[in-house]
Amino acid sequence: MRIHKKWKNIFLLLTAAWMMWYPVIQSNANQTTSYTYAEDGDGHYVRTQDAYLPDMTLTELGLSAAEDVFIDENNMIYIADTGNRRIVKYDINKGQIDGILESSEFSAPRGVYVTSDGTIYVADSGSKAVLIFAPDFTLIDKLTKPDTPIFADTNYEPKRIAVDSGGSIYLIGEGVYNGVIQLARTGEFLGYFAVNHAKLTFSQMLQQMLFTRDQLANLVDINPTVFTNVFVDNSGIVYTATSGTHRNGMKKHSTNGGNMFKSDVWSLDTLTDLYVDQNGLIYTCSSEGYIVIYSRNGEEIFEFGSYVTTVDIAGLFTNLVSIAVDMDGNIWALDGSKSYLQSFKPSDYAQMVYNAMNLYEEGRYEEAMRQWNEVLRLNQMSVLAHDGVGKAYLHAQEYERALEHFEVANNKPYYSEAFWEVRNAWLQKNLGKILLVLILVIVLYQVLKMLDKKHGRMAAVKMRIKKWTDRTPVIRDFAYALHMPRHPVNDYYEIRKNRRGSVMAATIIYALFFIDFMAFKTCKGFIYQYTAVEDMDIASIVIGFFLILGLFIICNYLVTSINDGDGTFRQIYLIPAYGMMPVMIALLAVTVFSYGMTYNESFLLTIILIIGVAWSTITIFLGLQTVHDYTVREMIKSIVLTVIFMIIAAVIGIIISIMWDSLYNFLSSVGKEMIQNVL
Amino acid sequence: MSYKKRVKRAGALILAFVIGLTWMPMTADAYIPTNRDTKVNPERAEYTPEDFTDYTLLLETGTVRYYYREDRDIIAVEDKESGYCIKTGADLPFSGDIKDAVKELKRNGASDEEILAAAESYADDLNTTYVGIANSLITIEYYESDKIKYISSASEEDAASTLSPVEGRDGVYRLDVDFSKPDIHLKLYITFKESSISYEIPYSEMSGQDLYKLASVDITPFLGASGGRMNVMNAETMEFETVDSYRVPGYVFVPDGSGSLIRFVHNSAAFNPYVGDIYGKDYATEMYYDYTYLDDVPVKEPVMPVFGIAHGDGQMAFAAWAEKGAEYMEIIVNPDGAKGTSYTWAYPRFEYNINYYQLYDEKGSGFFTQMDEIFQHDICMTYEFLFGDGSDGSPAADYTGMARTYRQYLLDIGELTLMPEEAGSDIPIRLDFIMADCESSIIGTHQVVVTTVDDVRDILDALTDAGITNINSGLIGWQKKGGNLITPAKMSFSRSIGSQAAFKKLFAEFGERGIEISFSRDMLTINREMTSYYNTAVKCISNWYLSIDKENILPANIPVTKFSYATPVKAAGWLEALADKVGSYSSALTVTEMGHVLTSNWSRNGVEMSLTESMELYRDTFEQVSSNMKINLENPNMYLWKYTDRYLQIPVGNSQYIYETDTVPFLQMVLHGTMELYAPYSNFSFYNQSAVLRMIDYNISPSFILSEEPSWNLADTFSANLYSTEFSLYEDMILDIYGQVNGVLSQVQGWEWTNRIVPQDGVVVNVYRSGGQERYVIINYTEAEVEYHGNTAAPESAAVFG
Sign of the CA dihedral B454, B456, B457, B463? Predict the structure, then answer.
């Protein structure tokens, strides 16, 4: 007992000491000025705990039309103060200006980059040069336009700059569509490092195909989207920002200039700058005042900011031109219109998220899990955290717990992986029992069969059922649908002769099919329920279902009536119903099996669905062919015409609806105006 | 634990502290304050005694002398003791006269002395209209072809003003202001008292053919303004040259959030003015009928009609508040650089007409127009002047003095009443519960329950067992499906949350133990799923129902994204009805939104209920309801303070306008000791050490929102912004935060908060007084130990002395 207490005291001592040493995370209360968003499990942007809080606002630097900002390893901010033709060096730790770089060579210094040895690179579009300064602000070199013949016709007005550890200089040039200009330290043109390709819209493609050369010459030039910024991180990887697109505007380049992100990355369409911190986190900003933070793999973590024009509030911008991140993880953002610097401090929440991500990347899964659980304490809705905890549990082989978190995070592939393990364990545990039950069922069935042969009691039961169904035509007609898929030609012939099938039974089948279809759409197992029920537009699904079915029946009747089809409207109404049993069974089977299948077995569900759909299609095809007494060729023709008619009917419907809306609006406007101005 | 063991434990902890200190970085960075902190006082203002040659002495009291300059409409207030003077106007000449005179003299070959005598310095960055505004006692804004124009009582043209004493009323003068273009006439009654001036403009005495054009009346726009740039005649070159005027060290105080200071500094950027719409915007008279929540957090609207300006380090200041017309008042601050001037100037603006968009159809066709008849309201503004640093116990010439003065005014008129507080008692804690909400389902909506009545009981039991006894609670989402789709007074209960009987039992059970539980309900926000808008929703001036779109800030699949506000009559009716229904078993009611949203209501025939009438209706209703229940209100406006027992979600910061330099607990200083004040929920970004210190600094009690089930259940509901509420995650934090805050604040419970000093950046000293004794609470936000008058406070901690 004494030993125990002693250890307890030592533990207390160490804990207290550790707490003293451990830096206190600072953040302030409820002081955000824009909402932070993150993606939820369904890919929607949802509000989340504040990730960054506006911190320092530096209005006293006397900047004018400043365009670029860079922070070195010593927490010094370098600002390209374009309007004042200078570079301002600001010491974050001391909260004061450390020096001002002025040079007679400056005309419009628009981009600044500082290498780890303190060398300052300035892109000056006015003097059309890259100016290189020593840490003490003395001019070392001036790189003017390369004299390579292939560069002769290119505009050389450098506006943004980055430099890698090998001394290669990456430039964004004003009006250069070819790509990122890469120069050697000596100023020699090495080529275009990365290129954006022009993408044609559908109408542009048509123009390219149909227009004459003269007409094409009159069109505006089709240029690729332009790079707006370039950055080199501390491991030498080059990143670029491109504006004018929401897709892949932010790229992480391999050494040959290709994009290292495997999947598409959503980006802000007015992207002005990007920055990468020591941990590989990528920060981007748009001129409209939004900041997005991505993981090193291009997964979006947070988005915040807003565009305002009539109020001046810290954290909101009218023209956000550049960002940089200091050694403490604070973001510094530059407003180009009002020329001030605004810093953002990461909240505890954001820091925990980053810590957890780093720990996971480093393979420290247990620590990552602890950190993710801390994140969950602050935000139980965090998809990132649930995903992180789930993955950590997966690594720890705690599959049941992993499932819970993957479900909240809506991470279906990982859920499937964990579910496979859970199912596997369950099967291993229960396989013996399952086999035993199966064998018992088979034996029991055989025994009953043998007994029935002897006593014939089942035959009497069957007779009784048959008599009951015969007495109830709807049941009989409904049961006929079960027979149909196996003997479509004969059975449809019976319908053609009006000897079998009833409108009532077909209506019941349609109703059942609708229920079956809705169950398939809304009640599948988690892994296969790709769209959450609450995200579905149920009204559209229901209306769409009945509209397509109704249109098909009506249009087919109209088409076949003028094409010598023998089928009556009643028969055409019955045929799809009676042919639907295979697809109904397939849908039901897929819905049920989806609860026990992982992605590994998805092919089974696909096969079931294909078989069901194909079988029903063939059955209905044969049914229509039979009632209309068509050849295959005529039948195909009638189906094609039916589809065309359906499209025409839908278009007419839409036009009528729009016209009706316009008419209603017109009458309503007249009415309101009368009320407003006359009465 | 025995004494020896305690000594051992203490020794171990001290050792740990020492080890910790040795491990700490030796060079802790200096505390760099942001605009969320209060910085040290401004420097002393330099001044020379004013020359009052062109002025007439109007009145002398024991404290001040009031002078008047007739040609420029300027009143000067001189502190008799120090000689410091604050003027209502900038006291500037019209530049045209001077330039013409100098030109004429030069042409006539006048001597340098003659030219210098005529060459009065004139403003470089103000045109003729602005010189008039800068001098004036009254400036009006009026509409001309949808555009706002300005004309002042001191205008060079088209305006005349005459000051004359009012017979039979000592110290009362009347300024008759007559504008010829536009044709508007008004009477300004000026009352001079010991150290205050009141301005009153009765609506009944406004006249003129163009009165309908009147957009607003701005009172003494340049009172206490600082800055400016002058053209001064150079005696050597005999040419005018531009010189920056002396920038008085000081600030403007605005009631933004808890309170905010805008220091007089030079800005290189041209910022937009600060516009503080008292009691929040009237959604019914905004330019458009539809309002959309975007990605920016809405600014904090002022809940009290007060502002002030302080000059120097405790030298001279004034606090100004509206006694009439506050609901139509805006506080405007033009920071240096705004509107092209280098002055920082602040004034109250009283609105009379507005420009709005009259729609024809939903497509947006329409036109801009103004009202045919202006808002009918009187104006009364009082300016109380403050002198000295408060060392004599009087309100200091700074924001603390402004707070004390305004508080005294509210106590005098009975809008605030001191609350009996037992000295040394535990501070209260607010624990709200989110019970249920709803989300979309295949058909209709589905109820999501996260806390039941039994859960509330268990949670409160757990906390009382842990030693917290001064608790009060609000139940949010107590109605079926959380109540977002049900009208406020409907007693619709769900058994899976708790039956009415279960709620009654819960209230009674804890009521006996002194823990007050109340239903919490938003009386204003409505949607079409909840009720038809006919006769229920606020109709805007354009005769369209007010529409508030929250699609951007709500989850994608939420059942409703468009909302409106109930008419004041409807909301008041619901409040009364709910109070009636629960009055028999609940001793309190928590009301959200209604406390800080004030709207008018319109119909085709014009205004159905004006802002003034809405305000009076709310006051009457709350007066009636509060007669037998305690009222808990979320961030209520001043006109409801009289009926508020608990002030919930009190702001602890400002809107963070870029030019706001400091945040101060002005609101808390005004309300301290008159009602219980609760911080925003600690669940969301308000849980760390600096937040705990902020609570102690601002003298407010902690609050939490809790649930039994994890809050991710609420992800698709209206409560999706309650990111984390599960009690099991918060139990320790509640005990910890309450323990820390109560440990300090319980020692000053029942004491009067008299001063707030910032001896250095990151350190605040709050001074409390009781029966002639003073107690100091030192709040140390820095990472270093600090000393104040021989008392020390550890890093990032608070300590009580005295």
Answer: positive
Would you say A229 and A260 are in contact if contact means Cβ atoms under 8 Å apart? no
Task: Tell me the residues of chain B between 710 and 769 that have a Cβ less than 8 Å away from chain A.
Answer: 710-712, 714-716, 720-721, 723-726, 729
Tens-place pLDDT, residues B29-40 = 567 788 889 999
User: String of b and e for A252-262 (b: at least 16 CB within 10 Å)?
Assistant: bbeeebebebe
Q: Report the share of chain B in percent with pLDDT over 70.
A: 96
Which residues between 610 and 649 in chain B have a beta carbon less than 8 angstroms from any beta carbon of chain A?
Answer: none
**Which residues have a Cβ under 8 Å from the Cβ of B404 and sit 6 or more positions away?**
B395, B669, B754
Contact yes or no for B627/B618 (Cβ under 8 A): no
Nearest to A383 by CA among A37, A14, A651: A37
What CA–CA distance (Å, rounded) separates B356 from B94?
35
- CB contact (8 A) between residue A669 and residue B295: no
Query: Which residues does A445 contact at the CB level (< 8 Å), separation at least 6?
Result: none
What is the residue-wise DSSP string for A189-229? EEEES--PPP---HHHHHHHHHS-HHHHHHSPP--PPPEEE
β-bridge mates for residue B753, sequence order: B768
Kindly list the residues from chain B whose CB atom is less than 8 angstroms away from the CB atom of residue A57. 34-35, 658
CA of B265 to nearest chain A CA: how many angstroms apart?
9
A678: pLDDT strictly greater than 80: no
Of B299, B360, B441, the CB nearest to A673: B360
Cβ separation B685–A312 shorter than 8 A: no
Per the CB < 8 Å rule, is A93 touching B29? yes
Does residue B791 carry a pLDDT above 60? yes
Distance CA A451, CA A443 (A): 12
**Euclidean distance between CA atoms B455 and B466, whole angstroms:** 17
- pTM for this structure? 0.86
**Residues of A in Cβ contact (< 8 Å) with B685:** 27-32, 49-50, 53, 347-349
**At A537, is the pLDDT very low, low, confident or very high (cuts 50, 70, 90)?**
confident
* Count, residues in chain A: 679
State the Cα–Cα distance between residues B275 and B396, nearest whole angstrom: 26
- What is the SS3 assignment for B138? strand
**Numbers of helices and strands, H then E, in chain B:** 12, 48
CB nearest to A35's CB, from B553, B725, B783: B553
Burial string for A100-133 (b: 16+ CB within 10 Å, else e) reads bbebebbbbbbbbbbbeeebbbbbbbebbbbbbb
Give the closest of B13, B361, B716 to A668, CB-based.
B361
Minimum-distance CB partner of B295 among A305, A536, A673 = A305
Banded pLDDT at A22 (limits 50, 70, 90): very low
Rounded Cα–Cα distance for residues B159 and B172 (Å): 23
Cβ–Cβ of A348/B688 closer than 8 Å?
yes
ipTM of the shown complex = 0.88
Q: Where are the beta strands (DSSP E) in A513-635?
A: none
Provide the residue type at B55 as one letter. Answer: Y
Q: How many CB pairs under 8 A join A and B?
A: 224
pLDDT at A679 over 70: no
Minimal C-alpha gap between B615 and chain A (Å): 28
pLDDT per residue as tens digits for the range B149-203: 999 888 888 899 999 999 989 899 999 999 998 999 999 999 999 999 999 999 9
Q: What is the pLDDT of residue A16?
A: 38
Q: Phi-psi region for residue A594, left (φ > 0), alpha (ψ -120 to 50) or beta?
A: alpha
Question: Among residues of chain B, what percentage have pLDDT more than 90?
Answer: 77
| Residues β-bridged to residue B566 | B537
Would you say residue B254 has pLDDT above 80?
Answer: yes
